[in-house]
Design brief:
This protein has 99 residues and is mainly α. Helices cover 44% and strands 0% of the residues. The protein contains four helices and no strands.
Length: 99
């Protein structure tokens, strides 16, 4: 959080902390490992995007997980929990003005 606050964001610490907590809840836990998207989720998203004309054709070669898998393997070898097994969503009290 401090690295974000050092950059002079528009929103103050309370809001930034709440946002980071919500984003983390979308990421953790991750049964495949951080950064690895479920292929079926990618295919489903592409199908919906094509159906509603967000894209003209189904992407070929757009799904790639070899780099993420290599990164996850390296992190695992260093003892990093790439699955977020112990992550728990924090209770963040939203404060007036985000202070």
């Amino acid at each position: 959080m401090n690295i974000v606050l050092q950059q002079g964001p528009t929103l103050l610490k309370g809001h930034q902390t709440w946002q980071m907590n919500e984003i983390n809840a979308l990421i953790w836990p991750n049964k495949l490992g951080i950064g690895i998207m479920d292929k079926s989720a990618f295919d489903r998203t592409a199908k919906i995007a094509k159906q509603f004309k967000v894209i003209k054709k189904t992407p070929s070669g757009a799904y790639r997980d070899d780099l993420a898998k290599a990164a996850v393997a390296q992190l695992k070898s260093q003892g990093v929990d790439v699955y977020g097994k112990n992550w728990k969503k924090a209770t963040i009290k939203v404060t007036p003005g985000g202070k």
